[in-house]
Specification:
The chain is α+β, with helices and mostly antiparallel strands. It contains 29 helices and 24 strands. The strands form four sheets. Strands 4, 5, 6, 7, 8, 9, 10 and 11 form an eight-stranded mixed β-sheet that branches. Helix 2 runs antiparallel to helix 11, helix 24 packs across helix 26 and helix 26 packs antiparallel against helix 27. About 0% of the residues have low confidence. It is found in: Cell membrane. Keywords: Cell membrane, Membrane, Transmembrane, Transmembrane helix. Pfam families: FtsX, MacB_PCD. This is FtsX-like permease family protein. Belongs to the ABC-4 integral membrane protein family.
């Protein structure tokens, strides 16, 4: 009980010193619990949505593995509805039309797709769709030229009843329709846009067949289980169909939103970085508090307090800090989740406030993370406190340093860093990507832990260099600041180490991102000869759009490009499914791929194809060998190997090439739509042809027209946007690290109160004192930045060498970005020192000198 009272008294006596450490725990736990609440809410939203829109049993056409992307959805005959309705145990059955193979365009040629990336679904207005939505404005569609639009999409794009829209269906082309009414979801909308047709029009417009439906939705009679009814229907219909219960449909649909798991674990990973950085802060806080309480601890030991009790006293303080801060963090996490949900609402993913999902495991996880991290961080200072000799403590105001332990720690740090460096070297020189990835992981861990452990040794060396380079110009004040920074290398190393982690990740990702962009740009310059690229952006190019490209004036040629699935059988009898690239012969001039044998133009001739170098080596293929190619949903053909392509490329790496006409002869009407098109301008017509091409495709905003400059810019923006998102998430860890600098300086000012009083008495002005504290902060921040940038460069260089095996062979080091990070670190140091410097300047000289 005495130990508990002592711990409570000490905790509340130092409550303001604990504040910044508590803030770090709050931020870390908030990120963890907020991520869990947000992901659980999104998952439950999708789960409820899929459950509400699923029937007891669904009957659809059997899925064909590697079916050709012809743009036409799988269908079943409409007459199947009556057959299913007649099965014993069926209460009712309805034909359902539902497809995502469409784009909706408004009068300004803008795509009405969801900003969240979710698809726009075309369906029919009937009993099944009315389970999930209700008419809230206008009237139901009365003909093929009328549609309903969901209210969220209408609100986002300012669509009203009576407006004209264009529906571009991959099955039937473009259709002008009028908005007859608006529908709203009976529950949360996970961001899906809906366009609802009159039932007969839905079949003919979206499926291209008036006598077909996408599936049959079946309602079970009372007392009949879903699984039992599914089996009865299967017995009646025989093979060729795929039957699923409501739960099976929901589970299958949830697989389609697997990005939620990626988002969840990605954000938890960044939260883990923040927790790790927070541990550094807590270690520093408790180490300094223990050092400042050395006399008090020594007195406790002298009057009979055991080492275990001293250890327990410090850990109880840590437990109090962890519990209080973690509880606040859990509450803050729920607020953070609501902010994230509001952000998703802004991009079209509407989630009702009542749908916020807080599972019992979430606060438990948040508390565990915060409390365990705090206890782990406080264990070392607690152990150090328990080992202080009572006589030594009463004689000296500070905890004596263990020189031998410092040397052992430095040796371990150097050993781990060296081992990590060797692993990075092995990763860079590995022949197999899988082996390289394993060595890279070991290298990242080894260098990170080694730098953390060896940071005190590095602090003594690097800070002296920084003193000479940065602080010398500030005269005696600069020398005092430098001496303060090196006075306790362990503390300086721990403070800078927290900042190092975040900046190492930032610099590594900057190198990788810049190298990827530079490599892709280099590949475009070296391999792409086409002047223009029409990218389908995930939607196949409808024939109208393809025809518009072909009829554009000023073009010397146009190249069709798509993917076709086939089973490729080698002469040794080994067959495997491959997606072949089917393209026009002009593709050989649109790209300049290297071949290890033969010429690429020959591969597009009738009866010919190309194979990648790896495939040829694996099966011992040479020019002139014949492969059996059986196209999915089409005929087979004997094709001759006319070229073997190098795999030293980013574009179409490992692709099999075949002529567009060869594939069309085997597939007929089942030939997939183009996924891209390439074009070259006639001499002197580049600008005019580019403008004409954009104008011809203005009514198809789902497709992107680009010249090579546009394509490079798009690539840079995509990778830049991804990096900015990562940087924003890493900002939490860096913020926690900055709090660590503030905390270290604040406690350092308290620790050096008497010394500061003596300096003031000897003539140091308040302005000089504040400058000294600020310079100390700057040098600590710069030390962390130098350490982080150095390690990050090593990580980035190694990762780039691994990526070089996939064609990303250009190394690009973003020196301006790294310089900005270094300069920003100095600014961070200045900002972190504002409050501690202000407090130091306000100390009363006489009271400071009298402080024991």
């Amino acid at each position: 009980m005495t130990v508990l009272k002592t711990s409570l008294r000490s905790f509340f006596a130092h409550k303001w010193r604990m504040l910044l450490s508590g803030v770090a725990i709050v931020l870390s736990v908030a990120f963890v619990s907020g991520t869990l609440v947000f992901s659980d809410t999104m998952t439950s939203t999708f789960d409820r949505f899929f459950g509400a829109t699923s029937a007891d049993v669904t009957v659809a056409a059997e899925e064909v593995e590697h079916a050709q992307a012809s743009g036409t959805a799988r269908t079943v005959p409409a007459e199947l509805v009556e057959r299913v309705r007649a099965v014993d145990g069926v209460a009712d059955a309805h034909g359902v039309v539902e497809t995502t193979n469409l784009t909706v365009v408004d009068a300004d040629n803008e795509d009405l797709g969801s900003g969240s990336g979710a698809p726009t679904i075309g369906t029919g207005w009937g009993p099944v769709s009315q389970r999930a939505m209700e008419l809230v404005a206008g009237a139901a569609p009365a003909g093929a030229d009328q549609v309903l639009v969901d209210a969220d999409t209408a609100d986002r794009h300012e669509v009203a009843v009576g407006d004209q829209l264009t529906v571009v269906s991959t099955a039937t082309g473009s259709h002008r329709v009028t908005v007859s009414g608006l529908v709203d979801f009976q529950g949360s909308n996970p961001g899906v846009g809906y366009l609802v047709f009159e039932p007969a029009a839905a079949s003919s417009t979206l499926l291209g067949a008036a006598d077909a439906v996408s599936s049959v939705a079946v309602d079970a009679a009372a007392g009949v289980g879903d699984a039992e009814l599914r089996d009865r229907i299967a017995d009646e219909l025989g093979g060729g169909f795929e039957l699923r219960t409501r739960e099976e449909n929901r589970a299958e649909a949830m697989k389609e939103v697997g990005f939620l798991d990626v988002l969840r674990y990605g954000m938890l990973g960044f939260a883990g970085v923040a927790v790790l950085v927070g541990i550094f802060l807590i270690v520093n806080t408790f180490s300094m508090l223990v050092a400042q309480r050395t006399r008090e601890i020594g007195l406790m030991r002298a009057v009979g307090t055991s080492r275990r009790q001293v250890n327990r006293s410090v850990l109880i303080e840590a437990l109090l800090l962890g519990v209080i801060a973690s509880a606040v963090g859990v509450v803050a996490g729920i607020g953070l989740a609501q902010l994230l949900i509001q952000a998703m609402d802004a991009v079209g993913m509407k989630v009702a406030d009542s749908s916020l999902t807080v599972k019992p495991t979430t606060p438990v996880a948040g508390l565990l993370v915060g409390v365990l991290a705090t206890l782990v961080a406080a264990w070392l200072p607690a152990r150090r406190a328990s080992r202080v000799s009572p006589v030594a403590a009463l004689r000296d105001a500070g905890t004596p340093g263990d020189v031998r332990a410092g040397r052992v720690r430095a040796a371990i740090g150097l050993l781990l860093t060296g081992a990590g460096g060797v692993a990075l070297l092995l990763a860079a020189r590995a022949e197999e990507t899988a082996d390289g990835a394993g060595f890279l992981a070991l290298g990242l861990l080894g260098t990170l832990v080694g730098a953390v452990v060896g940071a005190p040794l590095l602090a003594s060396l690097v800070v002296r260099v920084l003193n000479a380079m940065v602080l010398r110009v500030f005269g005696p004040v600069g020398r005092l600041a430098g001496r303060n920074a090196t006075r306790n290398p362990r503390r300086t190393g721990a403070t800078a180490g927290a900042l190092m982690i975040g900046l190492a990740l930032v610099s590594a990702l900057s190198v990788v991102g810049s190298s990827v962009v530079a490599s892709a740009s280099d590949q475009l310059d070296r391999t792409v000869g086409a002047d223009f690229i029409v990218d389908s952006m995930g939607q196949p190019l409808v024939e109208e759009a393809a025809l518009a490209v072909r009829e554009t004036p000023g073009l010397s040629h146009v190249t069709d490009y798509t993917g076709v699935w086939a089973e490729v059988t080698t002469p040794d009898g080994v067959g495997r499914d491959e997606e072949l690239v089917a393209a026009s012969p002009t593709y050989a001039t649109d790209v300049r791929f290297e071949t290890v044998a033969g010429a690429l133009p020959d591969a597009f001739e009738p009866g010919a194809m190309s194979v990648p170098e790896g495939f040829a080596e694996e099966h011992g293929l040479a020019l002139g060998d014949t492969l059996r190619v059986d196209f999915v949903d089409g005929d087979g053909a004997e094709l001759t190997v006319a070229a073997i392509t190098s795999e030293d490329t980013v574009i179409d790496q490992g692709a099999f090439y075949v002529g567009f006409d060869t594939a069309r002869a085997a597939l007929g009407d089942g030939m997939p739509l183009n996924v891209a098109m390439f074009a070259a301008a006639a001499d002197g017509q580049e600008a005019a042809a580019y403008a004409a091409l954009k104008d011809r495709l203005a009514g198809f905003p789902q497709y992107h027209v680009a010249n090579q400059a546009d394509y490079k810019q798009q690539l840079e923006e995509e990778i830049g946007g991804l990096l900015n998102l990562v940087y924003a998430l890493l900002a939490l860890a860096i913020l926690v690290a900055v709090l660590g600098v503030v905390n270290t300086l604040a406690l350092s000012v308290v620790e050096r109160t008497r010394e500061i009083g003596m300096l003031r008495a000897l003539g140091l002005s308040r302005r000089q004192l504040r400058r000294m504290v600020r310079l100390e902060s700057v040098v600590i921040a710069l030390f962390g930045a130098v350490l982080g940038l150095g390690i990050g460069l090593a990580w980035g260089l190694t990762t780039q060498r691994l990526l070089a095996r996939s064609g990303f062979g250009v190394l690009e080091i973003p020196w301006p970005t790294l310089a900005l990070v270094l300069g920003g670190s100095a600014v961070v140091g200045l900002l972190a020192a504002l409050l501690p410097a202000f407090r130091a300047g306000r100390l009363n000289v006489l009271r400071a000198i009298a402080t024991d």
